[in-house]
Amino acid sequence: MRLDRIALAGLMLALAGCVTTSSGGDSLSEKIPKANKSDEAKDAARIHTELGQQYMANGDLQTALEKLTKALQFDPNYAPAHTVIAVLYERIGKLPEAEEHYRRAVALEPAKGGPNNNLGAFLCKIGKSAEAQSYFAKAVADPFYQTPAVALTNAGVCQLGAGDRAGAEASLREALARDPQNGEALLQLANLLYLNNDAFRARAFLQRFDALGQPSAASLKLGHDIEYRLGNKDSALNYGRRLQSQFPDSEQAHALDATVSP
Questions:
Q1: E strand or H helix at 19, and its extent?
Q2: What is the phi-psi region of residue 14: left when phi exceeds 0, alpha when psi lies from -120 to 50, beta otherwise?
């Protein structure tokens, strides 16, 4: 399930000071006003958030936490800092703290798609599937949200996990209507149709996923199972060989080995 990442900007911003230029006492001298305290605090929070995200990407979680904590000390209302520290807390298993910051990000930016999608994805992960759907809907409703198909795909995956196959299919089809190249939606819909014993249509969506050139252990195992159910043993064997060749240590490869062992 995908979260919306905070894009890293160049870390070249210096906090503004007072700069005045003039020419021979000219009354039209250009003045650049000093940034106010609020702007300085927000800039400092942004810089520390970007640093925290970079440290987290490099695996230095302790320093990342220090930077993100500092960001929120500069500006407790800087929503991106709440999002990034929530991701960090989720990564280290501190789920109550993660939930608190995901919710705070939404409270600060209630109409924005990214924070709503992130909270929905987290709530789904911790078993609050019904509540998660309202946040996915809010994400999709944001007219400025650039990736509504991501939220729709997350909604579909969450609905499928909760046993709502009809709802999941509707969400995934809507995701593909908005982004036909959404690989996760294609794979999840293929899996859903397979679970519904509609292997023929499942194969069509899996073929579209396969055409993207980004196979996974899950997609190859699903391809094997679909073709086997359709009675195409040669095609099933081909998927199995690809799975064992490309992902030999995967759970799916071991599961396939177990089914073919005498």
A1: strand 19-20
A2: beta
Class of residue 235 by CB neighbours under 10 A (exposed 0-12, middle 13-18, buried 19+): middle
Q: Distance (Å, rounded) from C-alpha 197 to C-alpha 161?
A: 17
Structure tokens at 118: 């992130």
- Full DSSP string of 28-87: T--EEPPPPHHHHHHHHHHHHHHHHHHHHHTT-HHHHHHHHHHHHHH-TT-HHHHHHHHH
Nearest to residue 238, comparing CAs of 220, 253, 211?
220
Dihedral (Cα; 210, 213, 217, 221), 10-degree rounding: 20
When mean pLDDT is compared across 11-15, 24-28, 73-77, the lowest value belongs to 11-15
Tokens 């190249």 sit on residue: 181
- For the stretch 217-231, pLDDT in tens is 999 999 999 999 999
Phi, psi at 80, each rounded to 5° = -60, -35
Question: What global pTM score does this model have?
Answer: 0.83
Do 61 and 91 meet the contact criterion of CB atoms below 8 Å apart?
A: yes
Question: Backbone phi, then psi, for 32, in 5-degree steps?
Answer: -105, 115
Q: Which residues contact 183 (CB under 8 A, 6 or more apart)?
A: 209, 212, 214
CB 211 within 8 A of CB 199: no
Q: How many CB atoms lie within 10 A of CB 245?
A: 10
